[in-house]
Amino acid sequence: MAQVVVVTSGKGGVGKTTSSAAFATGLAQRGKKTVVIDFDVGLRNLDLIMGVERRVVFDIVNVISGEARLNQALIRDKRVDTLSILPASQTRDKDALTREGVQKIIDELSKDFDYILCDSPAGIEKGALLALYFADQAIVVTNPEVSSVRDSDRILGVLQSRSKRSEEKRDPVKEHLLVTRFDPARVERGEMLKLEDIREILSIPLLGVIPESESVLRASNTGTPVIMDGESNAGQAYADAVARFLGEEKPHRFIETEKKGLLKRLFGGRAA
Amino acid sequence: MSAAPRPETSPRLEPFRLRGANFNLLVLRLLDPRPEAVVPAIGDQFRRAPGFLRFAPVVLGLGDLEVPASAVDFQGLIEGLRGLEIVPIGTTGGTPELRNAAMAFGLPPIRSAGGKEIEEPAPAPAAVSAEPVAAPPPPPPPAGMARPTMIVEQPVRAGQRVWAQGGDLIVTSTVNAGGEVIADGNIHVYGALRGRAIAGGGANADARIFALNFDPELISIAGYYAVREGLTGAPIGKAVQVRLTGERMRFDPLG
């Protein structure tokens, strides 16, 4: 059986789609058969970030309404052959998604894939609820900022009460915290929430911290998931997070200001 | 529907006060006495709004049951409902025989304020388990007997609301900003209290709020409340006990 993983956040613009693309690619690079589904019907973006926007013929709504078969709509990635993308529709709205339709798609994908990533839209309305409904695991994407943390807290509550697992009283959805756009210098200046504070409020295991990086925007604009940029901090941080997701132990990197953090540790970090 | 407890006066001055209060309660009218028929059907229904009905107190309506008391499995019903995080707190309607049977399982008859009255409940049968049934002193409103303390071990998150009806509430984790905890009795938070805490139902002025890390959005006891902006004098971030003295809220450091 495939693992269904929702990438969600509550708030918009925190990096759900970037993280979905990076995670899906990372899992596929490690040989896992992975499909990533864009649930943001009406505002599809995942295909752009994945660089397949010119290959979209059919989308998830076509499949649900029976206008296309699932394998007609799936786009096989050209860089990693164990990776597929199921795009969202640009022209329809979220009402075109139905629970039964999504269930059928997930059941069918479960036969062929190890991981099904669901890239959730923002908010806690229908699209977001459907994206998380079937989840076995959830990656909650949060920025070091109060409103983002509050919305993530809210979505965690929704996961606990409105997922299929909670309704069937099975083991709860496994939750992972992914902090993105983290800027240690701004945290030090008190302009961003500290990592400990975020962890304390959300109290779920930390999967990774992705540093704020220009490489993310560059990657988005060129349609290359940032995890493929092995030079960039953000790419490496995503690779670490994928490794942790698969059960490896990795120390967290990029969470302290560079050099200064090291010097401080050497020369009286206690004073700080 | 609302239940109106009898307002009574206390003989002494300060040990406690009893006041009448009206509560809006959901009545679950049983049309079938079998738990195996009722519980799954409710599960389906309530599932559509699980957050809303979490720990919701309900009154069991017995008026539609035309069976002898022996045919109703109250134990099974109570367990089934609690399994769905719905808390039955009493009964309304039905034959005296049915009401007495329910009382043996800790579900006292509740009088509805506007509707038909049921006659005063007979004294509780002697064999009512270990729960002390307050017979001669007036029973506390609204359920008529001590209710177990509700313990919540998960963080109460933004948008979540936990209500300990008729008793105390203990949260062993945190109450996050945007979360809400309500109890008719006291509230204990053995973590950070960053959301709203409403103790003492509508009337229990002796209820208190305890928090290890006091950082709330709003605090209310027995209808008196203070928002964060007004808490300038309170020891924010400390372990704190909140109580009412007269009409003022008092914040004392703990430990």
Explain this structure to me?
The complex is a heterodimer of chains A (272) and B (255). Chain A is of the alpha/beta class and 272 residues long. Chain A has 13 helices and 8 strands. In chain A, strand 3 and strand 4 form a beta hairpin. In chain A, helix 1 crosses helix 12. Chain B has 2 domains: 107 residues, Alpha-Beta Plaits; 105 residues, Pectate Lyase C-like (3 Solenoid). Chain B has 4 helices and 16 strands. In chain B, the strands form 4 sheets. A 6-stranded mixed β-sheet of chain B has the order 6-8-10-12-15-16, with no helix packed on it. Chain B starts with a strand and ends with a strand. The chains are: A alpha/beta (272), B alpha/beta (255). At the A-B interface, helix 7 of A face loops of B. Chain B: This is Probable septum site-determining protein MinC.
Concise account of the structure shown:
Chain B: Cell division inhibitor that blocks the formation of polar Z ring septums. Rapidly oscillates between the poles of the cell to destabilize FtsZ filaments that have formed before they mature into polar Z rings. Prevents FtsZ polymerization. Chain A is an alpha/beta fold.
